[in-house]
Amino acid sequence: MRPNFAAVITGLAISLGAMSALAQGTAFTYQGRLASGSNAANGSFDLTFGLFSVASGSGQVGGTITLSAVGVTNGLFTVALDFGANFPGPNRWLEIAVRTNGGGTFTTLTPRQELTPTPYAIYSENAATANNFNGTLSNAQLANSTITVNAGTGLSGGGTVALGSSTTLNNAGVLSVTGNADITASTVGGAVTLGDTATSANTASAIVKRDASGNFSVGNIDFASGDFVVGPQPSMPAIISRAGAGTYSVLWSDNSGNVFLGEQAGTDNYGLGTLSGSGNTIMGYAADINLGSGNYNTALGGSALLQNYSGVNNIALGYGAGYNILTGSNNIDIFVDTVGNQGGNENNTIRIGTQGTQTRTFVAGVFGATSASGVPVYVNTSGQLGTLTSSARFKENIHGMDDASEALLGLRPVTFRYKSELDPQGIPQFGLVAEEVEQVDPDLVARDDKNQIYTVRYEAVNAMLLNEFLKQHRTVKDQAAEIGQLRARLDKLEQLLVK
Fold it and tell me: How many domains does the chain have?
């Protein structure tokens, strides 16, 4: 039967391991008492020993020592244990587990046993006693009697130095440090400290530095030459250069009246030729990056007039405005991006806004301003504004309308109000329903960019009404002539009847 090791094991660390004149080992002898139930144990047992930093719980230090076939007589046993250098000073507890020699699992005994101070009786205490309790060791008592001193950068000397001796390190690099009004220098205890008088304030005769927020105060900046050039440009002196920028410009101007602001602005990054244009104002990242021989262009916005090389008198405002203009001239593009109303390489064109982005337009100075002459303005599905032309020089295949206008007789005039989101005031309207008109004559309706029925071509309806009016007018005129002839014949008949 397996013994019941429920009893508490007690023990005492009774001696140190062997010691030499210069050092000592880390082993110690432990004597314990083992009981099985209420009786002292006898026989051979397997024991494990673990060292802990606390009385219970986790905190094991070092490895576990396993000893087999330990003899126990009348409950007493003695073992030699070595946990290495795991006795730095704090208390240590020993946890022991036991089993019958070679059989079953180990039973951990509780509580852990606190070790007596014996393992901490290190040789230094004896050395201190031998040296009048002052804790000093002689050189002969140390394993090494020399140290090596390595001289750092700018110093010479050092090397192997015997304990108790001295060495001198010499200044081999820095001969002297001298300050000035802007950069100060001081030497304290062999250390050289450099300082400066820099300030973020607008102070005369001072080095400028940024404050904790990255800002600094400036007064007036005066360029006596009249030039302000930032970023290197071929054959142009740079007042302020952008490190590593190459042909990337931040702000520069030249003697041809060009002004460029923005990284890569006007830098001919496509390499089509050298800049020979004049009178250009280019501002924005990569704005008119392709500029070569073009003159009097204004590009304000990232990638504005991006591809323009030789076009002249173009104005582009906003990101990507005038993006597709390469050689075109006399164009005005305002806030037209590269995915909307961007147009092409065109001339004499004005583009404002992006189709599908801007959905309402307000223009002051139109309503209430009388224009005694002029023509109506129309807009197509691309947003292009224009007027209808009636001169024969703009037309071909001209024919009389004849009976085509009779389609009007099938139309149904209606009264209505627009939906509230279109007209919150709900003003009464008069007109036609485009879907009904399309059933009568598809040529009388206009469709949107999705080919859905959008509105009635009222100008065409008016022309057809005129044709119907003229037809009726001719009919009435013919009828009046016929009535006149009938009246004359009646008059003659009346005269004959009277006779």
Answer: 3
